[in-house]
Design brief:
With about 375 residues, the chain is an alpha+beta fold. It is built from 19 helices and 6 strands. It has 4 domains: about 100 residues, GIY-YIG endonuclease, CATH 3.40.1440.10; about 60 residues; about 60 residues, no CATH class; about 55 residues.
Length: about 375
């Protein structure tokens, strides 16, 4: 089985039996950066079908029709044997890695892959049916009564807060807080503490952070919670933060907190191990930046966080390891004592003179003659 993870220029594809590849593929909208992951026994023919089927109800097919095929790029992620179980397993794996079936409904996948959830992608109430199958409003009320937060429910159903609130509105509820009725003070009047409790019930500070990471405005978060901006600001103040300071810090693969959420995309793809393998397989920096949808600055900050000064440093350290594996400085000294020339060492290790000199300088030797 072969890992490709390489782009194919879709406008040059020629469909035919000699091009037949079975496995997992990814389609990227060059204009919007939206993704779709699928499986096929003949990937290139499947791409042709995506472009040809203009009457399809699949989101990816409608998008290709809208933006035209030239604005999409096809990637072959993995070539696999023609086995449905294996194809299902890897399709689910890559959908999870690239997060193309997400709560924000940004990407084109409408199921978590494999055989999905048994619903067609064009189901008119796909997200609502997930909640209905779990028990609908009665299940939501019981969940809230048992102490589950709004964030818990969004994670359980794997849907966005927008889709969840649309479902509640369809059932005659304006928000999560209405499922158990409004709380009153001992005087029988709604008060400020009740509004604060609404925020806590939704998931508190973690829920607000996650909303901001998703791009929601303060007003949208307030509306979703059923409170005023004034109440929201006071809640943040009680927790010694404000809206502007909510960075939604995440853990990188190194275990260090950072504020750049783009790094999480790299971590999910495999972190430094994935980057190093990509560089070793002659993948370019530009391809990786496009794959992760991040800028040079964020990428280089990620490399520095993991001990690399830049893209070139990846190859340099990888090639330094060739010398280290051969015995390092001790090996070079012994080789020189045995009358081996620098050229013979370069040929033996298959490295360049520049790399060898850089290695020597890194070990406080000016050049080969000073060894």
């Amino acid at each position: 089985m072969t890992n490709y993870i390489i782009p194919i220029e879709t406008n040059t594809l020629q469909v035919g039996l000699h091009n037949k590849l079975c496995g997992i593929y990814l389609i990227k909208n060059r204009l919007t950066n939206q993704l779709y992951i699928g499986q096929s026994r003949d990937i290139l023919r499947r791409w042709y079908e995506h472009c040809k089927d203009s009457r399809s109800s699949f989101r990816i097919d409608r998008a290709i029709k809208k933006y035209t095929p030239d604005n999409f790029k096809l990637y072959i992620l993995k070539v696999l044997p023609e086995n449905k179980l294996i194809l299902n397993e890897y399709e689910q794996y890559f959908i999870k890695i690239f997060k193309t079936f997400d709560k924000n409904d940004f990407h084109y996948n409408m199921t978590p892959g494999g055989e999905g959830l048994g619903y067609k992608e064009d189901h008119p109430n796909y997200k609502g049916k997930i909640i209905d199958d779990a028990g609908g409003i009665d299940y939501l009320k019981k969940s809230k009564a048992s102490g589950k937060s709004l964030e818990d429910m969004l994670n359980e159903f794997k849907i966005s807060d927008k889709a969840f609130y649309n479902y509640l509105k369809d059932q005659g509820y304006t928000g999560w807080h209405e499922l158990t009725g409004k709380r009153e003070s001992s005087t029988g009047v709604n008060h400020y503490n009740y509004k604060q409790q609404l925020i806590k019930d939704a998931g508190g500070l973690n829920f607000i952070k996650s909303c901001k990471i998703k791009g929601l405005s303060k007003q949208e978060v307030s509306d979703n919670l059923g409170v005023s901006i004034f109440v929201l600001d006071n809640y943040l103040k009680q927790n010694k933060v404000n809206w502007e300071s909510l960075t939604g810090k995440r853990e990188s693969s190194s275990g260090k907190n950072h504020t750049d959420c783009k790094w999480q995309i790299i971590d999910d793809a495999g972190g430094m191990e994935y980057i190093i393998k990509s560089e070793a397989s002659n993948n370019t920096l530009e391809n990786l930046l496009e794959e992760f949808n991040i800028g040079h600055k964020s990428f280089y900050r990620y490399l520095k966080e993991h001990g690399y000064s830049g893209w070139y440093d990846l190859g340099r350290k990888r090639k330094f390891k060739i010398i280290d594996d051969a015995g390092g400085i001790s090996y070079l000294k012994q080789s020189k004592k045995s009358s081996k020339t620098m050229k013979s060492i370069l040929n033996e290790l298959n490295i360049s003179e520049r790399l060898l000199n850089n290695y020597l300088k890194a070990h406080n030797y000016k050049n080969w003659s000073k060894l």
